[in-house]
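#onboarding

Welcome to the new folks! Below is a worked example of what a typical request in this channel looks like: someone posts a single protein sequence, and someone else replies with the predicted structure as tokens. Don't worry about understanding the tokens yet, we'll cover that in week two.

Example request:
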Amino acid sequence: MPSVIVSWSGQCSELFVRENLCWKLEELAELSHGYFEVPPPIRRFDHTIRGNILISGSLFSTPPSSSDLVRVYESLPQEVDPPGFELRVAGPLRQKLMKIHEDLFSISQVDLYGIEFRLFDGRFLYEDDDRVSFVFLRMEDYPELDGAIVYVEDHNQCQFYENEMIRQADWFLGRPRVHLRYYCESWMDMLLGWIKHFYIPNLNYWRYKELPGYEIFSNIDPTDSELRDEFFEVLKEGFHEEVRNWSGIAAEASEFWRRIREIQQQEEEP
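Example response:
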């Protein structure tokens, strides 16, 4: 099989649940980063980001209906270009969420909480697409988005997108994903299944099909914290095994791609 993009989405508005999940994922993050020759920093979020922030429409648990969208330029002179749509919600607004394109929304400020880490792969095939993100939006004014899990792209990361609006953004918040090829594919199914079963029941994830491997949780009590923690220890050991089993292949692949890059550099030299 070719490589696969594993993606996931879900929503958790309970702060206690988010914190407990992220404390657990911190252990995985430190384990994974510990395999790097020079460990990269773990990205931790518990702060507000500001600027030109774009949000993917794929993050909405329920897409806004036409009755929820109102033209913000109705009262503007006709010569003024329409900036987009405002998402109207009940109660006072702290920040206005604007629909600026078919599947893009804009806001000037948003609170984030969570963690993002790189999934170690000694082959280093997808170094720009190896990030595991469980970062949550904190948007109490917008129940459709509050607690949504996001993939946080800063301005530099936005430059890799084809969409010009995203390239001009300070931040882009999209659907989390990780690029895999054989290594850790089934393990990732188990990690996401564990998170769904014990922390975020509405989590949905995809690898060739929806919720692969989730059937193993069918007879497990989601409130059994002892079994939850035992399963997590198995996940950590499973990651150790993945790294060990692929170490020889990883060394060969790393050397292969090193040579390829050298050849490419030689061809680019005048």
